């Protein structure tokens, strides 16, 4: 488990604020957009990656003596591998909305990253886990099964024109398969990122010498090197952009659907400096009217909040192991679930019956109880290793 120091408190507060504020807001805008346009997953992912690449470029550009990118910490081959995994995970997660996957189930199912992290840690890295950790993972697995089954119980419609239950279940199964593949790739991405940061970024910690926003191992003398999390944020999204060339037909069709949606009129005030000869009272009575498709507003909000969300996640990844990142994100998903179901409960109840809601909440409780148990088990295991090393 990571060690906390008073000097690091501002950076931890900023990191957690970005994760909980940005990611929860992002989940709300994503639910609003995908509930009306469930087939727009590829376009949403493209907009997110493009916006983040532009934002990340501003942090890595230097103009001395000519415009160029700052010196990298990590080799290109590892960045390309992470970019491929990240792009696939993002595309698969957003594509699942087209297969009748409700947002609460989407959130809880992705909490299964804890299970994947444990399995991959044991199979690939040869790690051992305590009894408390193993039991906690079983709780999480049971919770995920209950939650995913809850949404496969839709209310029976009185309209015979609607598709039958077999069609719904078949489509739902495809969506779950997509999320399962995304979960496996996400676990693999966590292992690759953990190994990359451990080798090229982290070093024996000297927390008292760190400044806010830095990470252990950051060489203060190397002013040309970017902050590691900013480097990862940019390259992983920028290197993913060429992959959308293969999805250009889907992007074009989804863009046409959003562009054909209902339009909204936005009133933009006229700046006084553009027309100094006109009085302020006259200008206040006039404004520029801009007509834009209504879906563009939640799409823009989603891309902006995604920048905040992934910035917090990358800051956290640069400091701690993939296990700790998974735990923090699981707690964040709990907050998103509460906001989604409690504040927008009418949408959730419209998709499932009363028994389905009970199953979903029971599954959510097991997932988060297992997450807490796993965290306690990891902390106990870490302390035992420290005591053993001291004894030797």
TrEMBL record:
Coiled-coil annotated residue ranges, if any: none
Domain of life, per lineage: Eukaryota
Keyword Transmembrane helix: yes
Entry GO CC: endoplasmic reticulum membrane; Golgi membrane
Location(s), subcellular: Endomembrane system
Keywords per UniProt: Membrane, Sugar transport, Transmembrane, Transmembrane helix, Transport
Record bears the keyword Electron transport: no
TM helices/strands, residue ranges: 43-66, 78-101, 107-125, 132-152, 172-192, 323-346, 358-378
Pfam families: UAA (PF08449)
Membrane topology category: Multi-pass membrane protein
GO molecular function: UDP-N-acetylglucosamine transmembrane transporter activity; UDP-xylose transmembrane transporter activity
Record's protein name: UAA transporter
Organism from which the protein derives: Obba rivulosa
